[in-house]
Amino acid sequence: MEPILLVHGGAGDIPDSRIQPKIDGNKKSVEAGYAILKNGGSALEAVEAAVRVMEDDEAFNAGYGSVLNLGGEVEMDASIMNGVDLSVGAVTVVKDVAHPISLARLVTDKTPHILLAGAGANKFAAEQGVPTLPPGSLVSPYAKQALEEYKRRKDTRTEIGARNPGEVGTVGAVAIDKNGNLAAATSTGGINGKMVGRSSDTSLVGCGTYADNDVAAVSTTGHGETIAKYCLAHAIVKSMQYENKNAHDATNQILTQMTDKLKNTAGAITISKTGDIGIGFTSRRMSWAYRKGNEIHYGIEKGQDNVDIIS
Ligand code: GLY
Fold first, then answer.
1. Cα 108 to chain centroid, rounded
2. Annotated active-site residue in 92, 158, 170, 202
3. Residues 55/179, Cβ–Cβ less than 8 Å
4. What pLDDT shows up at residue 162?
């Protein structure tokens, strides 16, 4: 199987000032994940590595630079799923860890559970030797500005507003490795101005993340309450499984159905078990990139598909 690594950097209105940082960050993330696939690593390792890069990048709403809750704090959610055996790990409302996606993976590897929340997730992180950062370390100046702006206008229709460069975007990755194994990973700071303690779709298996070697791997982004009501990632996978749709059609049709019904927007990335790719969003923009062979494809506008050839 030809390995593929596909990432997104958030769906929403996305201000013009954020376009280039997101494209650059997505390409960097793809390179990190693809290097693992190229060296024979697993899809699971690759999606974790790709998401970690975006968690370090303040162009995205994950890890450092996450949006803030109404209390001015970063509370993060992440989930990761292995298509080999449907094993899944997730964390929600976790604070002061640099890479929630790696903590989610530890939940899969080291506990009998699928989701740890809040103080329990942080206690588990400390027990596993994951460093606890000093409070406030993940708060960026842009995020503070975005919260102030939110308090003025109270607009949460999209995950990323057009007017404010501090509203950034959930990140995610899906991959297929040389053995045909699939995996998906998603990480977020949530929605700007959320209530303290709010959990998102990103921590919920079937909503933010899903992977099954028999069908496909999906990661979603966008208005979390809407995505959760529609079980978006699972809906895309089941549409492929039972309606025999390819990744592109399933991703775009399910997103459109969700937005028609629930009147909020989202985006998703999908790789099928045969390596067929789906990228879709009902928001104005969504940044994405993938690498297959010596080509990196990327875009952020509707219909865009730029290509860099790696020599
Ligand atoms: N989709 C991410 C969130 O709503 O928090």
1. 18
2. 170
3. no
4. 47
Q: What is the pLDDT of residue 163?
A: 47
pLDDT for 308 equals 98
The residues of the chain scoring below 50 in pLDDT are 157-159, 162-166
Can you give the residue ranges of every domain in the chain?
A: 4-219+289-309
Name which of 52, 104, 113 is nearest 80 in CA terms. 104
Q: Is 170 a catalytic residue?
A: yes
Beta carbons within 8 Å of 15's beta carbon, 6+ residues apart: 160, 161, 162, 163, 164, 165, 167
In whole angstroms, give the CA distance from residue 61 to residue 190.
7
d(CA 256, CA 268): 11
The whole-angstrom separation of Cα 55 and Cα 82 is: 20
Cα 76 to middle of ligand 1, angstroms: 10
Distance 28 CA to ligand 1 centre (A): 23
What pLDDT shows up at residue 79? 98
